[in-house]
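agent: user wants the full assembly modeled, not chains individually. Plan: 1) parse entity lines 2) check alphabet per entity 3) run joint structure prediction 4) return tokens. Steps 1-2 passed, two entities, 264 residues total. Proceeding.
--- entities ---
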Amino acid sequence: MLLTDTENENQVHLHIASSADVVAARQQARALASQVGFSHSNLTVIATAVSEVVRNIVEYAKEGEVTITLINRGAYRKGVEIVAADQGPGIPEVSIVMRDGYSTRKGLGIGLPGARRLMDDFEIVSEVGKGTTVTMRKWVA
Amino acid sequence: MDVPILKQSRYLIASIQSALSDEDLLRLRDALADLVGRHRARGVIIDVTALDVLDSFATRTLRAIAYTTKLRGAETVIVGIQPDVAFAMVQLGLTLEDVPTSLDLEEGLAFLDQQLEESPAGP
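--- prediction returned ---
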């Protein structure tokens, strides 16, 4: 579900509850990021990272929120920030999940560590029973 | 969004038209496993030219389709992976392992023709 903030066209907010929302999130991320001058291949990289992180929400938390924000602070600080937050079960040991090949369910174990490789900045905060928030950024080279 | 599947001689051609959700991909897998038997197909081409993202789930499902159809007697070839998509897949660490790929539909058909010629059952 798309809940565009009409006050701020540099930001898109989506409620995530199904795998169709995964597709919507990556399309919205691509569309928004295309406004700050990313190369076509970096737009694909961003869309792919969003797909992995948002699928994780559907997979483990069932639902959550994604906020995509353009960063436009002059010529040398252009980029996009994606915050994917859920109130799901949380991750007991983040360092284990971030290890390549680790998977508890149907993933390839590539989702989160893969998204980290695709983006420039990647932070994950998780608390068992409270939820998980992934914040990631890509800067226009 | 269901993927149209065309039959051309002994091949099935699944021509993906737009972005697919995980459920769409699983439906494609099931449809192809079924249609290979119904049409006695010897080859399957999945054209992903229209896909702007191949993430871990899509890649894994394409591999599953290729292995499933192989067990049903049909070789699958993936065609049309776009340059940017290939680049992102490499960065993400995704591979199609031993699933054959071709540049486009024409190359994919040529590949399957060659496979059938080489196989003892013949075309």
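agent: reporting back. Chain A touches chain B at residues 18-20, 22-23, 26-27, 30, 40-41, 43-45, 47-48, 51-52, 55, 100, 106-108, 110-111, 114-115, 117-118 (CB under 8 Å). The domain at 11-139 of chain A is CATH 3.30.565.10 (Heat Shock Protein 90).
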